[in-house]
Design a protein that fits this description.
It contains 15 helices and 22 strands. By secondary structure, it is of the alpha/beta class.
Length: 488
């Protein structure tokens, strides 16, 4: 394992006094590695190297840049098991989910390798004869990428790949909780032949290295994924100095189950959405708004499902749900479980998992009788906790669903196309599902939210390219110098 930062094509050990302990959340006595923490001073060096690299990389033809991404795709495909194991051990999600995340990132790499052959502008008619008007896309320069711990492979990949293929160079700060997976990604790009300085990685703390990236005058754009509180501060700081910014933030996603819903399908979707990845997904299902005629039946089935989930270390093939990522999140989730017990009905779970004291394990928890005033209904818990509320009809379900300040994903279960289409129109989120779980995203589809979940452009798809480029409008007059008539 590489245990440093990566600058100008070489692994580098910052000489700061602080170190970052990479712990196994399934067994906190196991220190996987120690990383010396980079500091704000390292950001200056990283930016200088990235600026120098930009001069060359931005002039490499885009299909040639794409080939580097393609080689990274092939290398990653050859080491799926090793990548998944590292991810599982430092983040905690079970091995099957870790593998799924690696495969998702590989799809994103594939997609952006293809985009290198299609970095297209637009050709549009001019108002005047003998004038040709079109647009081209140009890279921005050095871009800053700041990422969270919960998808430590997929999220860095979906920022780095479009940034690079569009011709930018990157200063990347992964979450300090998951530096191993981030280093694995950088190593893959290094082996794929990415020139030095194009991808600078600094393993350090958010308030130090992260903030220095956000504030650096030579960083043209900042792409941030993380909590709403940090993200909104990042957005305003970077925007104030004129940088382009996109932030993908927290979520509080609802599944609506109408009276005609396929109950088994709802149970499957909610089990996956609420407890998959230990509830630590921005798209996790944290609310079920069920029609009053089926709320009892659904609650019973979900409680039974939660009780049957085998909790344990992600590396154990028998485990169906792994630990919470670290001590801070563990305390925060346990705090919310206490809040839920005060304000709603605890149906199952509600505390630490018995017999697993060596790690940050909590029980999958279901609260019933939740009302829209409750904190567990409104606030992102980011753990395996589901709040169930009863609703009379679609209108009330929409009112409840839209009440929260977040707007990432939502889903409806119904056989009625009219109801489904009214939901698609009325729900205030960036990603809408019909008869599908709230989770998931695909490389070719825009990913992101509205309200306090997202500010700035969407990620993945061509939106990722649009964020990391500027569009330049070109007017070419080939009338041999004849004056153009601007007085129409
Ligand atoms: P945080 O906001 O705590 O951290 C995100 C990143 O920001 C980390 O790298 C962190 O560094 C860094 N950071 C912290 N403070 C600053 C600062 N002042 N300036 C710049 N960077 C800073 O989020 P989490 O890592 O806890 O991630 C969980 C959150 O991410 C959840 O709210 C989840 O919903 C959201 N998320 C949203 C997604 C979306 O697409 N909408 C997708 C995935 C997650 P450090 O680790 O050192 O603190």
């Amino acid at each position: 394992m590489k245990t440093g930062s990566y600058l100008d094509g070489a692994w580098y050990h910052p000489t700061s006094e602080r170190t970052i302990k990479n712990l196994d959340p399934a067994d906190t006595s196991e220190v996987l590695a120690e990383f010396p923490a980079a500091t704000a001073a390292d950001v200056d060096r990283a930016v200088a190297g990235a600026q120098a690299a930009f001069e060359t990389w931005s002039k490499v033809p885009a299909p040639e840049r794409a080939r580097v991404i393609w080689r990274a795709t092939e290398i990653a495909r050859g080491r799926v098991d090793a990548l998944a194991e590292a991810l599982c051990r430092e983040e905690g999600k079970i091995l099957r989910e870790a593998r799924g995340e690696i495969m998702k990132g590989i799809s994103v790499l594939e997609y952006y390798a293809g985009e290198g052959f299609r970095l297209q502008g637009r050709t549009l008619p001019a108002e005047t004869a003998d004038v040709f008007t079109y647009t081209i896309r140009r890279p921005l320069g050095v871009v800053g990428l700041v990422t969270p711990w919960n998808f430590p492979w997929a999220i860095p990949v979906w920022k780095v790949a479009p940034a690079l293929v569009a011709g930018n160079t990157c200063v990347f700060k992964p979450s300090e909780i998951t530096p191993w997976t981030a280093s694995n990604m950088v190593e893959i790009f290094e082996e794929a032949g990415l020139p030095k300085g194009c991808l600078q990685m600094l393993v350090g703390y958010g308030e130090d290295v992260g903030q220095a990236i956000v504030d650096h005058p030579a960083i043209a754009a900042v792409s941030f994924t993380g909590s709403t509180e940090t993200g909104l501060a990042v957005y305003s700081r970077a925007a104030r100095r004129g940088a382009k910014v996109t932030c993908e933030l927290g979520g509080k996603n609802a599944v609506i189950a109408l009276a005609d819903a396929d109950v088994d399908a709802v149970v499957g979707a909610v089990m996956n959405g609420a407890f998959g990845s230990t509830g630590q997904r921005c798209t996790a299902t944290s609310r079920l708004l069920a029609h009053e005629s089926i709320v009892g039946q659904l609650t019973e089935a979900l409680v039974e499902g939660a009780k049957g989930l085998k909790i344990g270390p992600g590396m154990d093939p028998a485990s169906a749900m792994g630990p919470i990522v670290d001590a801070q999140q563990f305390e925060s989730v346990l705090g919310y479980l206490e809040v839920g017990k005060q304000e709603a009905t605890l149906c199952t779970g509600g505390g630490k998992a018995a017999g697993l004291e060596q790690g940050y394990f909590v029980e999958p928890t279901v609260f019933g009788g939740v009302s829209p005033d409750h904190r567990v209904f409104n606030e992102e818990i980011f753990g395996p906790a589901l709040s169930i509320a009863s609703v009379k009809d679609l209108d009330q379900a929409l009112e409840y669903a839209n009440k929260v300040e977040y707007g990432l994903a939502a889903s409806i279960y119904t056989q009625d196309v009219g109801q489904a289409m009214r939901f698609v129109e009325g729900i205030e989120v960036g990603m809408v599902h019909v008869n599908e779980p709230t989770v998931g995203g695909e490389a070719q589809l825009p990913f992101g939210g509205i309200k306090k979940t997202g500010v700035g452009d969407r990620e993945m798809s061509t939106d990722g390219i649009n964020f990391f480029t500027e569009e330049k409008t070109v007017f070419v007059n080939y009338a041999g110098g004849a004056a153009r008539n601007f007085n129409r």
